[in-house]
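Design a sequence for this backbone.
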């Protein structure tokens, strides 16, 4: 990874839902790409990655997790029309004690919904986003995931 690249965070918020848990996805406005993703944003100079994750989640959803877990996964993001990386994104899993309706900023996101893991991966556009969610999902059942489950 190029240490000179800007840093961003991607936060997948999860809450209990029968039979397991669900993830909150936000749909970006059409002028921002119109795709579904977790909360994401830039890390400010001097800000720790976990602090940025909590801030970005609060800015985009007005929600605060009861626990934040690094997914131990990061990847480079490339702009559509550029071949070189534009930032390095670090992934976090944020846990809620219950599903709560977020308050979204309509200038950034125009819809939201809670999805099971299998439903959520269908909505994600980039392979890196799918892998990020898979890494978060593994945090719920690391033994089963390690065994190929």
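Sequence:
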């Amino acid at each position: 990874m190029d240490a000179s690249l800007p840093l961003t965070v991607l936060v997948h918020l999860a809450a209990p839902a029968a039979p397991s848990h669900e993830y909150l996805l936000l749909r970006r406005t059409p002028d921002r790409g119109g795709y579904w993703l977790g909360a994401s944003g830039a890390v400010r100079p001097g800000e720790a990655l976990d602090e940025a994750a909590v801030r970005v989640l609060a800015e985009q959803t007005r929600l605060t997790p009861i626990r934040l877990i690094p997914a131990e996964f990061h990847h480079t993001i490339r702009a559509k029309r550029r071949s070189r990386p534009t930032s390095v994104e670090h992934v976090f899993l944020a846990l809620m004690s219950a599903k709560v309706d977020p308050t979204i900023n309509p200038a950034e996101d125009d819809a939201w919904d809670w999805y099971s893991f299998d439903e959520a991966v269908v909505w994600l556009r980039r392979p890196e986003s799918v892998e990020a969610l898979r890494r978060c999902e593994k945090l719920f059942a690391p033994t089963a995931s390690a065994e190929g489950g």
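Confidence is low (pLDDT under 50) at residues 143-149.
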